[in-house]
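Batch job 17 of 40 flagged for manual review because the log was empty.
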Amino acid sequence: MLDTWRREWAVRKIKPGDGRPLPRFRFWQLLSRSLLHLQLPGRTGPGYAVDVRRGGDSEGRVWADLYRDGRRHARATVPAVFPVQGGRLEVATSTFGLRRAHFVADDGTEHQLVPDPRSAEGRRARLDRRHPVLSRWIGVVSVLALLVGVGLNLLQLAEPISEIPPVTALVGTFESPVRLPLWVNVGLGLAAALGSSERAMRLRYRWYLDAVGN
């Protein structure tokens, strides 16, 4: 019920496109733009692409633009849901990149959109195809960086939070067994951010891991 309401709300946000052609992906957009295409074997009909400028507009809103046959067909702020032939496209972002970019068919099956080969997501996918072992190790390191960085920082943060009078009255005080220098905490935070960014390039978002890191 809640998911249905969210989809209906997202559809109501859609604005018509202006028909402008899809801009070519440039290398300097690696950290600020995501471009993905709907590519399914044997699928016929119009071609769709989703263009997300993650930096946001002047008001901080992040837009997802839907292109149909190379022309801007519609746009909406994320999270966005675009009804298309045979189903819908769902797009969502996190602090560090893409959280979701999937085609959901009318029968409920899901297919992840294919990133443009020039985008950061496309380059990461190419690394995975060409060097699968290295790719797996990078994924493992990303998870470890998130777990260690976020875990240790939260452990230290729990102590000052427990000293707030209402919290102290409720659960008592907590003394962190870990006390790290500022530069180490900053380094752990950066490592966790890099881990979240790497996972976002693979659309590997999990609420119990990436939400805390974000």
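Reviewer: the log was empty due to a logging misconfiguration, but the result itself is present. Helices lie at 2-12, 120-130, 132-162, 165-171, 182-201, 210-213. Unflagging and moving on to job 18.
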